[in-house]
Amino acid sequence: MPLNDRSRRQQLPEEVASHVREMIISGEVRAGDFLRIERIAEAVGVSTTPVREGLLALRSEGFVEMVPRRGFVVAPFTKQDVQDLFWAQAQLAGELATRAAKNITPQQIAELEAILEAHQDAITQGDTERIASLGHAFHRKINLAADSPRLARLLGSIVANLPNRFYATIEGHLGTTQKEHPLLLEALRKHSGKKAKTLMESHILDGADHLIEELDQRGLWETDSEANVG
C-alpha cells in the first residue's frame, strides 16, 4: 500500500472522532443517545470501518460507551469534565512555559514578538479566524521553546479531547489573549520560569470558564424538561 494511502487510512478514524466529539460537545447529541454508524459515515464521507475505529477511540477517551448488541451510546459530559481537561492542560502547559523560560533563544523571542504583532493587527482588522490561528501559534512556539517533545505530545493528547473550534472561541476572547500573551512574553524574555508558569496556568484555566459559559449558552447541560420550557 502506498505511504500516502496508509496515512490517509490512519487519518479517517481521527476525522470521525473529531466530528463526533463536536456533535457531543455542541449538544447535537446528548448523554444516552445512540450513535448510528451509517449516519456518521454518510456525514463524514467515509465507510463504516473508520467510523467504528473512531468510536472505539472515543470510548477510550470516555466520550462514548459501548452497549453489547446495541452499539455506541453517548456518555455523560459534565462541567467538571471540562474543568478537569483544562486543569490537566494547565499543569502541562505551565511546566512547558517554565522550561521555555529557561531555554528560549533571542530568535524565538523575536518570533513570538512577530506573532503578537500580527495578532494585534488581526484584532484591528476584526479577523476572528486569524486571531484564533495566531493564538494557537503563540502557544505552539512556547511549547517548542521548552524543548520537551514528549511532554508536548502529552499536552497534545489532552488538547485533542476538545474540537479545535472551541479552542478558537477561547483564543478569540480578546479580553484574555490581548492582555495575557504580552505578559507571558515578558516573563519569557526575562527568563522568569515561575512567572511564566503562573501566567500560563491562569490563562488556560480562565479558558475553562469561558468554554463552560459558551456551552451553557448552547444549552448543552439543559435537561429535557428545561429544553422544552416555553
TrEMBL record:
It comes from the Bacteria. Pfam families: FCD (PF07729), GntR (PF00392). InterPro entries: GntR_C, TF_FadR/GntR_C, Tscrpt_reg_HTH_GntR, WH-like_DNA-bd_sf, WH_DNA-bd_sf. GO terms for molecular function: DNA binding; DNA-binding transcription factor activity. Keywords: DNA-binding, Transcription, Transcription regulation. Residues 10-77 form the HTH gntR-type domain. This is Putative GntR family transcriptional regulator. It comes from Rhodococcus opacus (strain B4).
